Amino acid sequence: MFAIHAEKLSKEYRIGQLAGGYDTLRESINRGVSRLTHRAPAVSGETVWALKDVSFEVEQGEVLGLIGRNGAGKTTLMRLLGRITEPTSGYADIRGRVGSLLEVGTGFHPELTGRENIFLNAAILGMRRSDVTRRFDDIVEFAEVQKFLDTPVKRYSSGMYVRLAFSVAAHLEPEILLVDEVLAVGDAEFQKRCLGRMESLGRSGRTVIFISHNMPLVARLCSRLVLLEGGELIADGPTEEVIGRYLVSQSGSSAVRTWTAEDAPGTDSVRLRAARVVGETEATTEVVDVSETAGIEIEFEVLREGPEFVPWIDLYNEAGTLVFSALDNDAAWREPRRPGRYATTAWIPPHLLNEGSIVVSLSLKTFAPGRKPIRQAEFDSALAFQVVDRGEAGSSSRGDFAGRMAGTVRPLLRWTTRTEAADGLLVRHDRG
Does this model's pTM top 0.70? Predict the structure, then answer.
């Protein structure tokens, strides 16, 4: 049974209007008098479609991820689903009470205290006062604002604001929870609790729609993604497939690439013909877990016998930082190769790469004593894939830490501990 059914949802905005937003009666009268006594500026008739014919369905209890570039229409879609604004055309059939957290402090009145805003938000969601009273202590404990509960929320820091807003939205147990990119405001401990809360909401049969640009986080939370681009829905399916499509739209690279004989990079001696990212089963994959082995497969064609052709890869993270370079140091590559097709795979061990997007550049090189390697065939940013941490117990170096771990690599190290007990007994513990 579906929780949300959207049919050709569209939203058009007029740009360059004379006035916008909501005015008081006095402002409206003043503006009307001004138009009578002065020549009003021309109003632009240009319009823009923030959302265009978007259709999809969300099952009850499903955790759906909504991804896309800035300006793709994600927040507009959430506002339509949250009934904050009305669609220009199309409709959304929503079954259940909706709680939304689309920006910091959504629905909060800055002059009211934290306590008052909890009850105000509950009333907006249609909750009875007795239900709010029953959950009140849990809301306050989760938000960690006990000391400031009777302080107007306009004096809260952004972190306190978002903690209380999320706590209210999550603990009042709406059937459908809409969450925009607000978790970036909180610290690592708060993010950990938010993620746990959203996961528990999904397991309890409630529906969650989650917007984020953090692909590792999306991969951990969601089994299905919707990708928007230019206000249109361009992909809807399993997380790994849609992340692959997103990577192509972002970097122009995907987990697989092929070249024809005419456009294959290289020389008259050797040319690249294909490349792909593979998992442990050697199947092509756009998403690799940190605990899994990943392979970079390079297929090339030797057209005529010549010098050695050594496979080489360079891996870069999303910031453009070189993670590492690697070459096949097998002595066999130092010998001339006979004409034919070759396929070689570089295997990246588990627990080496950190979470995030990885872009791979490929080359075939010839080494000459005392000289820099000669690139016989090369292609920058040939492949892209996503490294994620699904957080399975015992399989990650993250442990109980929920925040982003910095760095380009993230090894799972072996730890040894030595403890001297009170009775003088020396105890050794080896883990990893």
Answer: no
